[in-house]
Amino acid sequence: MNRFLLAALLGLLAGSARAQTTVRLTSIPAATPAGATLYLAGTVNNWTPNSAAHAFSRNPDGTYQLTLPATVTGTIEFKFTRGSWATVEADAQFNDIGNRRYTIGSGPATVELQVAAWKDQGNGGGNCQSTALQPNVQVLSTAFQMPQLGRTRRIWVYLPNDYATAPAKRYPVLYMHDGQNVFDACTSFSGEWGVDETLSQLQQQGLDATSSIVVAVDNGGADRLNELSPWNNPQYGGGQGDQYVDFLAQTLKPYIDQQYRTLTGREYTGIAGSSMGGLISTYAALKYPQVYGRVGVFSPAFWFAQQPLFQYLRQHPANPATRFYFVSGTQESQTMVPLMQAMRDSLARGGVPAANLSFNTKADGQHAEWFWKREFSAAYQWLMQPTVVTNARTSRSALAFSAYPNPAKDRLTLQLPAATREARVEVLDLSGRTVLRDKLKAGATLDVSRLAKGQYLLRVTAGREQGTQALVKE
Fold first, then answer.
1. How many helices, marked H, and strands, marked E, lie in the chain?
2. pLDDT at residue 176 tops 70
3. Which residue in 76, 114, 119, 358 is a FRET match for 151, CA 20 to 30 A apart?
4. Can you tell me whether residue 471 is helix, strand or coil?
5. Where are the beta strands (DSSP E) in 97-247?
6. pTM, entire model
7. Please, which residues have CB within 8 angstroms of residue 198's CB and are 6 or more apart in sequence?
8. How would you classify the pairing of strands 74-81 and 64-67?
């Protein structure tokens, strides 16, 4: 019996060995630094650019080789890097290239490929011509403090075309992740989204409703997976997503609202991202339902934390007034569309009406920046449509107000639309009890000095318009 078991085991091991695929790089750029480590980054490792498990070994003949585990099957997408997205492969003219694709068969195989160039070596090694639209796009800081994570990060800000010429106007704000890829091809690792060009063109077409400030946060490089999931994936990491979304809501948003002319209510605050950015955007809307009212979910990596995410949703239903826009390609992965649909259905069961859920699948869609760039305009225009605030008794249009500073210590300043002279202001505690009520004119202040320190909900009503936002009392 033991001999038969041993034979069966050896057969299984031999089958596993036969199923493995080897990727061999037969040619790399002559300018590749001596001693550089090359990596494969793709769907096999959630696009980690420096995964030690996917590093190539150098052969005596100068070629590079990586054997993928037998567990890797089906169609994979990937690129080659020297350890970061700044050093990703490019074409011979140093332009971004699309994802490589390969379908792994049932038997052993060796795939021979070549790297034409490294992106960071183009134009003399770093003199890339920025594509960020000027003067709309600014780098707010190259080292913005993230106290919740003990790190710093580059933050980008896009300002609408008329921001400088309309000093009385206030704007919605959209927060986005993976800021390197949002505005500038020179900082992107696989092409940019072109958000700045898209929004400026929409404004030039007279679509003033699309005028928004966009705040983009660079990803954390090696910390990206950790920051973009609140839960740990045993294989890939994660677990710092709570601190990351706390940073967005408690540190970055208050700063942006203080420094720029923003509409601070949840009805005018959005969050969007792709892949892991789609996962963390969904989570942020669930954890901070009084901060975000619009959520753009592009090709979400729900698989990364499937069970805890859906459990969290059951325990923390979304605000019914939140608008969710989902989009992905039908062939991105076996779980992409089913999990995205499951999220849409779970939100609906939790009370989000069909009018606030837009579900879109594209036959040609890929897990790539070019696809998200193409889909951004439609997603943005749907998300930024005028919203209706509905409760058990009545429906109201969203009120375009601003209330600051937040956190507030003694007084809270209220800004109202030009045609609105007065509004009813209410402060509610977390149980829904009204603890402060007043009527204020535009530009007036609300005395909050007697409120206990903590978290509240601010509700502002003017006629048939109403808006809400989270309020923190210091």
1. 10, 26
2. yes
3. 119
4. strand
5. 100-104, 109-114, 117-118, 137-146, 151-158, 173-176, 213-217
6. 0.82
7. 373, 376, 377, 380
8. unpaired
CA atoms within 13 A on the CB side of 363: 0
Q: Which fold has domain 2-126?
A: Immunoglobulin-like (2.60.40)
| DSSP state string for 415-448 | E--TT--EEEEEEE-TTS-EEEEEEEETT-EEE-
**Hunting for tokens 């404004």 — which residue is that?**
203
Q: Does a cis peptide bond (omega within 30 degrees of 0) precede residue 135?
A: yes
The neighbour count for residue 320, using CB atoms within 10 Å, is 15
Domain 137-385 has CATH 3.40.50.1820: yes
Amino acid at 234: P
Q: Which amino acid is at 369?
A: E
Task: Note the CATH architecture for domain 398-473.
Answer: Sandwich (2.60)
Do residues 452 and 473 make contact, with C-beta atoms less than 8 angstroms apart?
yes
Question: 164-203 b/e with 16+ CB inside 10 Å = b?
Answer: eeeeeebbbbbbbbbbbbbbbbbbbbbbbbbbbbbbbebb
State how far the Cα of 253 lies from the Cα of 458, in Å rounded to an integer.
16
Q: Break the chain into its structural domains and give their ranges.
A: 2-126, 137-385, 398-473
**CA-based R_g, the chain, Å:** 25
**Are the folds of 2-126 and 137-385 the same?**
no
394-447: per-residue pLDDT in tens?
677 899 999 999 999 999 999 999 889 999 999 999 999 999 999 999 899 999
Tokens of 173: 């704000």
87 vs 113: CA distance, rounded Å: 18
pLDDT per residue as tens digits for the range 73-124:
888 889 999 998 888 898 887 878 888 989 988 778 899 999 999 988 875 4
The token pair at 359 is 């579900």
Helix (H) or strand (E) holding 23: strand 21-27
Which two tokens mark 25? 């790089």
**Beta-carbon neighbour count of residue 323 at 10 Å?**
24
Sign of CA dihedral 133, 136, 142, 143: negative
